[in-house]
């Protein structure tokens, strides 16, 4: 995208946001909170896609497993979920390593078809394992501070949910710092752009893949923990996150982490916009699909093979 | 007898001009050699004619029909055939099936007739191991298979993209003889992109030299080789080595 | 024409499957019907896979076929058998309309967009309660053939044979050459005269129709549809596991895989009622890692070493 186009696009989004804010401020506030959740979940997927070049169809399931682990740790040890998320993230990092070493690694050189089927299989194994251990009964963790609200004039809204956009910004900032300033991050970027070249200059490509995949697993697990503080969880809760995350990454264009933020904002606000109409809220879950189709049509109109 | 006309053809890739205002016509049973330094736009030109890319401007006509924006499979039916610089055999099909594809999908023949015709074509090209999978063929056989694959589409104009690459001198000689035979017997116009000057000298009735996407010279082999611009492009440029 | 032993064996198998209800109890028959539903789905998934594209849209089209069949029965009073066929046609029409857009996609873009289809159709059904019953679904006044097990089984068997025949035709006709060429190299395919989009659309439409027919059979034999059960992810997971285990890019593979896994899963259901589906996930992972050619592929390699199954390579370090 050229600079002028990007400016035009962000300007347009800003003006649209302003109109919505003046018209119904809650749509924008809840939209931003929702967008934060989507962005924070999609960013790790974008990271893996950009560097390891595989799409992980078990992405949402890893979020779900992280949420369940947090639930059980919190209940068993009486810990606050926001504290439990740390040990859980460490465990999930290790789980990511195991999954990479045992499975992903062995399909990296196979056709993309095999990778898609493999990660689909992994998603099923994770979902059904949790179903087997924890049953399909929904689980809820009640934490009192999540219902904190704030009133400005006549406007009252929940404050806690700003934790999602805040986390998204921290994850984005952290990842950009990691990729641009640290040795491992720079190596990872080199691997993402040209794995063979990176190998020739002496970068341990396999190790980079391992680190990136495990890091992404830990990050998505943190989002699972945060999700648990607001919503009930069940074994199938992760599936939609995989699809929405991919839609966002595709909208942003593979390799663009900041683009994920903008795409999430568009999706989050559109969904809350629909949800604000009584009787039409149910349709909000297909907005992401409309966006996928829109992106396909626009890109193919420009004559590009996606 | 077909005729290919290329008019003012230009292709830009993100600012870089790969093919620049090229005018070129040939047909009948003519063999045209297309030469030029690396990156001169030879393969891009073939890709534009066969419909892998669409040009930024200009026109391509075959027998008077404008095919500039036509999808690749339709151009094939109108008689544009080609081979690939990097060989692209269909690995999950046998050699004969690779060749049958052209008869079936561009000439609408039945499987049975396509098979008979493909076997005949293989015999005429001395390609006798047609029942094998492609992975069992040697390099010369693969080249022959690629040519057969293209001939099966019944081309009026056949574009060969560095078909000699990787062959030793005996194999080279055999393939040159084959191409001559094909051009005369099947009345196919051939455009051949080649690095080996000996091949061009041996085969081409006419030679076109491309540099930086534009035509630098057009004439007989002897004429072109005497052209000072061509000598400069090959020797003086330095950065094409 | 000579009668080859292959044809004799095939005829014997058909006769045995027609006679199956006479020596099997109702429980075995219900297992057989389940196996057939998944067999049709596995065959159709594999037929599209031959183009090199993975579709996770099975559940979506299965559900559409199921709903179309039930709605046609309820709203227009069309006889059940006819609604199953019409349901398949409706599904094909929906698929061809969607195909005009999503068949421009490849690889992961195509796979995930089709994965979303089931979810999308489910949401749509949820949100049109007056027309399609919303979250509660729709109930038919009765099941097909008034519950006559024999006729129902034969209807299912007919659908299975039709699907096998279709898949076999795809293996033996010029469609096989077109699809394999598209999978191996789209550039070569189109330069040799193959209209890639046309063939993708044909296969997408036909396989969706098969999935719709499977949905119609299911709905008419159980007598109800709900958004959750008719668009269930099981209709993606099980067929894929079956086709992979049996061996992809063949007709025999999905058939063998459906029978083997279908029977095994009945026993698993008894021992692990919740979460027995984990086995399917494990099979997918293990097969793709260690034996990507499946049972049939392994047999072929054993019988004559030269037969290879294309692009699905053994994992290499």
Explain what this protein looks like in three dimensions.
Chain A is an all-alpha fold. Chain A has one domain: Orthogonal Bundle (ABC transporter involved in vitamin B12 uptake, BtuC). Chain A has twelve helices and two strands; from the N terminus they run αααααββααααααα. A two-stranded antiparallel ribbon of chain A has the order 1-2. In chain A, β1 and β2 form a beta hairpin. Chain A is globular. Chain B is built from nine helices and ten strands. The longest helix of chain B is centred in the C-terminal third of the chain and has 18 residues, at 169-186. The relative contact order of chain B is 0.19. The model of chain B has no long low-confidence stretch (mean pLDDT 89). Chain C has a domain at 27-231. Chain C contains 15 helices and two strands. Chain C has helices at 5-23, 26-49, 58-76, 80-102, 107-126, 129-132, 149-172, 174-184, 186-191, 196-222, 227-230, 234-246, 252-271, 278-290, 294-303; strands at residues 138-139, 224-225. Chain C is globular, with a radius of gyration of 19 Å. Chains in contact: A-C, B-C. Chains B and C meet through α2 and α3 of B and α8 and α9 of C.
Annotation keywords:
heterotrimer, A: ABC transporter involved in vitamin B12 uptake, BtuC, 12 helices, globular, B: alpha/beta, four-stranded antiparallel sheet, 9 helices
């Amino acid at each position: 995208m050229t600079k002028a186009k990007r400016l035009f696009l962000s300007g347009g989004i800003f003006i649209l946001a302003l109109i919505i804010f003046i018209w119904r401020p809650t749509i924008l506030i809840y939209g931003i909170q929702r967008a934060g959740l989507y962005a924070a979940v999609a960013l790790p997927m974008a990271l893996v896609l950009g560097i390891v070049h595989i799409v992980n169809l078990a992405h949402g399931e890893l979020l779900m497993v992280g949420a369940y682990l947090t639930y059980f740790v919190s209940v068993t040890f009486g810990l606050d979920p926001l504290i439990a998320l740390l040990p859980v993230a460490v465990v999930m990092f290790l789980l990511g390593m195991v999954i990479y070493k045992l499975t992903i690694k062995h399909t990296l050189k196979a056709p993309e078809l095999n990778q898609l089927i493999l990660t689909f299989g992994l998603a099923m194994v994770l979902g059904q394992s949790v179903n087997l251990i924890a049953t399909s009964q929904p689980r809820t963790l009640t934490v009192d501070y999540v219902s904190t609200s704030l009133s400005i004039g006549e406007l009252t809204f929940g404050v806690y949910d700003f934790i999602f956009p805040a986390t998204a910004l921290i994850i984005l900032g952290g990842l950009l710092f990691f990729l641009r300033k640290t040795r491992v991050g720079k190596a990872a970027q080199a691997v993402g752009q040209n794995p063979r070249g990176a190998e020739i200059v002496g970068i341990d490509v396999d190790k980079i893949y391992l680190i990136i995949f495990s890091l992404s697993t830990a990050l998505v697990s943190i989002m699972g923990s945060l999700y648990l503080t607001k919503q009930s969880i069940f074994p199938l809760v992760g599936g939609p996150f995989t699809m929405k995350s991919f839609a966002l990454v595709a909208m942003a264009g593979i390799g663009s982490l900041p683009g994920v933020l903008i795409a999430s904002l568009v999706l989050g606000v559109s969904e809350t916009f629909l949800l604000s109409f009584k009787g039409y809220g149910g349709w909000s879950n297909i907005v992401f699909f409309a966006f996928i189709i829109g992106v396909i049509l626009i890109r193919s109109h420009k004559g590009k093979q996606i | 007898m077909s005729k290919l006309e290329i008019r003012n053809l230009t292709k830009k890739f993100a600012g870089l001009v790969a093919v620049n205002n090229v005018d070129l016509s040939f047909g009948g049973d003519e063999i045209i050699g297309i030469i030029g330094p690396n990156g001169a736009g030879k393969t891009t030109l073939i890709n534009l004619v066969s419909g892998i890319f669409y040009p930024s401007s200009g026109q391509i006509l075959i027998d008077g029909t404008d095919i500039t924006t036509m999808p690749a499979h339709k151009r094939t039916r109108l008689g544009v055939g080609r081979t690939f610089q990097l060989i692209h055999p269909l690995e999950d099909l046998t050699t004969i099936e690779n060749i049958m594809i052209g008869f079936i999908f561009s000439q609408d023949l039945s499987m049975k007739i396509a098979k008979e015709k493909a076997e005949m074509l293989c015999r005429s090209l001395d390609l006798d191991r047609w029942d094998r999978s492609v992975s069992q063929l040697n390099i010369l056989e693969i080249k022959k298979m690629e040519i057969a694959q293209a001939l099966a589409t019944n081309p009026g104009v056949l574009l060969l993209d560095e078909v000699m690459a990787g062959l030793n001198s005996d194999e080279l000689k055999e393939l040159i003889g084959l191409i001559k035979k094909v051009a005369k017997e099947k009345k196919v116009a051939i455009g051949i992109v080649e690095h080996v000057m000996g091949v061009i000298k041996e085969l081409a009735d006419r030679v076109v030299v491309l540099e930086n996407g534009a035509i630098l010279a057009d004439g007989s082999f002897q004429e072109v080789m005497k052209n000072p611009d061509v000598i400069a492009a090959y020797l003086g440029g330095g950065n094409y080595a | 024409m000579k009668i080859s032993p292959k044809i004799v064996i095939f005829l014997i198998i058909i006769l045995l499957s027609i006679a199956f209800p006479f020596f099997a109890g109702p429980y075995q028959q219900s297992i057989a019907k389940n196996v057939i539903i998944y067999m049709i789905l596995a065959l159709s998934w594999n037929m599209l896979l031959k183009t090199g594209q993975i579709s996770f849209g099975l559940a979506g089209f299965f559900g559409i076929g199921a709903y179309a069949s039930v709605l046609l029965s309820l709203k227009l009073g069309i006889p059940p058998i006819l609604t199953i066929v019409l349901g398949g046609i409706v599904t094909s029409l929906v698929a061809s309309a969607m195909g005009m857009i999503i068949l421009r996609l490849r690889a992961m873009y195509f796979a995930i967009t089709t994965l979303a289809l089931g979810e999308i159709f489910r949401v749509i059904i949820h949100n049109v309660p007056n027309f399609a019953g919303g979250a509660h679904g729709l109930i038919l006044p009765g099941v097909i053939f008034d519950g006559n097990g024999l006729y129902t089984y034969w209807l299912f068997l007919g659908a299975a044979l039709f699907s096998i025949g279709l898949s076999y035709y795809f293996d033996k006709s010029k469609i096989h050459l077109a699809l394999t060429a598209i999978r191996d190299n789209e550039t070569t395919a189109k330069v040799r005269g193959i209209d890639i989009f046309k063939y993708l659309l044909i296969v997408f439409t036909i396989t969706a129709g098969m999935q719709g027919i499977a949905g119609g059979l299911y709905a008419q034999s159980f007598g109800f549809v709900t958004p959750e059960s008719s668009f269930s992810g099981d209709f993606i997971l099980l067929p894929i596991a079956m086709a992979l285990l049996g061996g992809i890019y063949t007709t025999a593979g999905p058939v063998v895989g459906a029978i083997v896994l279908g029977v095994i899963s009945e026993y698993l259901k008894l021992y692990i009622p919740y979460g027995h589906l984990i086995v399917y996930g494990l099979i997918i992972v293990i097969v793709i890692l260690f034996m990507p050619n499946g049972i049939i592929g392994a047999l072929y390699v054993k019988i004559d070493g030269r037969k290879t199954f294309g692009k699905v390579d053994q994992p290499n370090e």
